[in-house]
Design goal:
The structure is a single chain. With 263 residues, the chain is of the alpha/beta class. The protein has a single domain, classed as NAD(P)-binding Rossmann-like Domain (Rossmann fold, 3-Layer(aba) Sandwich). It is 37% helix and 11% strand. The protein is globular. The strands form 3 sheets. A 3-stranded mixed sheet has the order 4-5-7, with helices on one face. Strands 1-2 form a two-stranded parallel sheet. A two-stranded parallel sheet has the order 3-6. Strand 1, helix 1 and strand 2 form a beta-alpha-beta unit. It has 11 helices and 7 strands.
Length: 263
């Protein structure tokens, strides 16, 4: 296995080397010579098309080989982490999500399950070729998210639907008019701002534009995480295994304690 890294001596690169069957190719995805060198060493490649890093204009696709697309969504962890588009706040001791979602649903994914799906694509090339494998835990409605959090942790939680003006006046406010792509040219007319990008995201979720086919996911990964409640229970289990105390309400509160105050 070959992994591309900007710094072959970084802790992340060294942790990959420690697996024993990995080599590091130092360079950047923006260097075509480096990419070609890496591709020549591989039978297949996992390419992360990251519009928030490169800007939408630099995303590309090829046409001379078998290809499958792995379509993810916001990680479930993002609903419990600071500095994300759906960061909660603690209001009078209550875990509170204020986002412009209405009665819609976000297609949150389990990071833990993503590697299983990607490996399946590589292991089943004939079936995967031409497939867009769209994954999610479930269609997560935030009233249900708050209820699941209360059930698993025993701590109070609530979801408050919020209009866009209030939402963009909150934690995202310092960045709302900056390019959503970190390396995008702000003077390029095709560059989208955070406000433009996330208005589109939230409207797609709010009006249930984005759907997932769970029968296929159940077939591919019968043991996948299928509900928010199951995901929360899994975080408790992982926390105990790592000796970090689980994913209790107090632990989640500490995770987001550095986030901005409620707006």
């Amino acid at each position: 296995m070959v992994a591309l890294s900007r710094d072959a001596g970084s802790p992340r690169a060294e942790s990959l080397l420690a697996l024993g069957n990995v080599s590091i190719l130092e360079g950047t995805f923006a260097d075509e010579k480096i990419l070609r060198e890496g591709f020549r060493q591989c039978d297949g490649a996992y390419v992360n098309i990251d519009g928030f890093n490169t800007g939408e204009k630099t995303e590309a696709n090829g046409h001379r080989m078998g290809a499958a697309i792995f379509t993810s969504g916001p990680y479930m962890e993002m609903a419990f982490s600071p500095m994300t588009p759906m960061v909660p706040t603690i209001e009078d001791g209550v875990m509170t999500w204020r986002v412009p979602l209405g009665k819609g649903a976000v297609v949150h994914v389990s990071l833990e399950d993503c590697s299983y799906y990607v490996r399946w694509l590589f292991d089943n090339p004939d079936r995967a070729n031409g497939m867009d494998l769209e994954v999610a835990i479930e269609h997560v409605r935030y009233a249900d998210l708050a209820a699941a959090f209360e059930k698993v942790t025993g701590h109070s939680a609530q979801y408050i639907d919020t209009d866009f003006d209030v939402y963009f006046g909150g934690p995202l406010n310092p960045a709302v008019d900056r390019p959503a792509g970190y390396n995008a040219d702000p003077d390029d007319k095709s560059t989208m701002s955070f406000r433009e990008s996330f208005t589109g995201f939230w409207n797609m979720w709010k009006y249930d534009v984005i759907k997932r086919g769970f029968a296929l996911l159940d077939e591919i990964h019968p043991n996948r995480i299928k509900t928010v409640e199951q995901w929360l229970l899994r975080q408790e289990e992982l926390g105990r295994e790592r000796g970090t105390g689980g994913g209790s309400g107090n632990d989640f509160s500490r995770k987001i304690s550095t986030s901005p105050t409620p707006y």
